[in-house]
Specification:
The complex is a heterodimer of chains A (141) and B (266). Chain A has 141 residues and is mostly helical. Chain A contains six helices and no strands. The N and C termini of chain B lie far apart (69 Å). The chains are: A mainly alpha (141), B alpha+beta (266).
Chain lengths: 141, 266
């Protein structure tokens, strides 16, 4: 499912009207196991290579976001996931402004955050209701 | 327990500083390592297989209701034959002049490599695209990228099978030399509010709206004579010593599917 989320991110990035998909991050936030930090580090590295041609921005950012999520959560909560998406976009935006890759533009930041939220919330709802529920039923047979 | 938490926070801060440092070092133009190229090529190759039918459907949807465009294209096609004859005559004249002057190459000659856009990152929508041609196909860093409408940008990173193209509308460091109506020279310095900003033009030059802006072929890898856009507005700088132009790009950057990489010179 992680690979499907990753490829969905790649494909849906070609459609401007859809928004900014962060399906990989959403899946990692929902799917918790003991190796989650290692998996998120490797996924982040691959994300960097494919999208940004850089090293270890998302490789570090994914585990940090998951760590903050784990510190704050009591159970999987959509509001908390929304906060994590906003936090992720804020981190990325600030870091890219610090290294002067993009110019600071608050309006652009708001647009990016809003574009991220809608499509990713829908994906989280679908993941929770359909996939994770099915897996729970399958494992409990 | 409190000390443990402090160490974790310190670790996070160190990681963020390290990632900013690595990002600064790796974000500028650099050659991709072998492992990075291999991972990128593999993932984008599989993505291309999945995306091709989706792209086909997307194009079919875009072509619905294109009858008005068909009428306009038909009118333009009637002018095509006359232009073709003029072009052949001009090419012949250039060849004769080259022989006379013993020139090996001119600024407007280039090789072409056709490519398909396979991915673009929406958060940097107007900054980069990835195409499905790389060093195996002869693409090198710095090559200009165009489509039928005009200049799109230039290649910033290359792997064996893919290349990253920095768009003209992105925030770039290199100024691009352009000419207005084939006679007045300027530099593209920025992109803002859907317009390219051209500066470095003397105040006493005669420029009008809708004048054609094209590349000069000087100073970088862009061949000369590639359409960039048309003049939309003319202002002067704060000292009234030079003109600043707002140029509307000829390319529709929302709709980039098929592009051509051009290599300057033969």
């Amino acid at each position: 499912m992680l690979i499907i989320s990753f490829y969905l991110d790649l494909i849906l990035n070609n459609f401007k009207f859809i928004g900014i998909p962060l399906f990989t991050l959403c899946y990692l936030l929902l799917k918790q196991n003991k190796n989650i930090y290692l998996i998120s580090f490797i996924t982040g590295l691959i994300y960097d290579i494919v999208y940004l041609d850089t090293l270890i921005l998302n490789g570090f950012l994914f585990p940090i976001i998951i760590y903050i999520y784990n510190c704050l959560r009591k159970k999987n909560n959509i509001l908390l996931i929304i906060l994590m998406i906003i936090l992720y976009q804020t981190f990325i935006f600030l870091i890219l402004c610090i290294v002067r890759y993009i110019k600071f533009d608050f309006y652009k930041y708001i647009i990016i955050v809003l574009k991220s939220l809608i499509i990713n919330i829908l994906y989280v709802i679908i993941l929770k209701k359909v996939y994770l529920k099915q897996k729970h039923i399958f494992l409990n047979r | 327990m409190k000390i443990d938490k402090k160490y974790k926070i310190l670790l996070i801060i160190i990681i963020i500083i390290l990632s900013i440092t690595l990002l600064t070092l790796t974000l500028k133009n650099r050659k991709l390592t072998l492992i990075e190229s291999a991972i990128k090529d593999t993932i984008l190759f599989t993505e291309k297989i999945v995306y091709t039918p989706i792209n086909y459907i997307k194009e079919k949807i875009n072509n619905i209701g294109s009858s008005d465009e068909y009428v306009k294209l038909k009118e333009k096609a009637s002018e095509y034959d006359a232009l073709k004859v003029e072009l052949e005559e001009a090419k012949k004249t250039i060849e004769d002049l080259k022989k006379t002057l013993e020139l090996n190459t001119t600024l407007n000659e280039y090789q072409k490599i056709n490519a398909t856009v396979i991915t673009r990152d929406i958060s940097s929508w107007y900054q980069f695209i990835t195409i499905d041609k790389g060093t195996n196909d002869g693409v090198t860093v710095g090559d200009a990228v165009i489509n039928s409408q005009g200049l799109i940008g230039n290649v910033s990173k290359v792997s064996k099978k893919n290349s990253t193209v920095r768009l003209l509308t992105g925030e770039y460091n290199n100024k691009i030399s352009v000419k207005i109506n084939n006679s007045i020279y300027g530099l593209i310095v920025n992109y803002k509010d859907s317009y390219l900003i051209v500066e470095g033009i003397a105040e006493n030059t005669a420029i009008e709206k809708e004048n054609i802006v094209s590349t000069t072929g000087l100073g970088n890898n862009f061949p000369s004579g590639i359409m960039v856009g048309t003049v939309e507005d003319i202002t002067t700088d704060s000292f009234d010593l030079a003109k600043t132009l707002l140029v509307k790009p000829s390319v529709d950057f929302d709709n980039l599917n098929y592009v051509t990489v051009v290599k300057k010179g033969v």
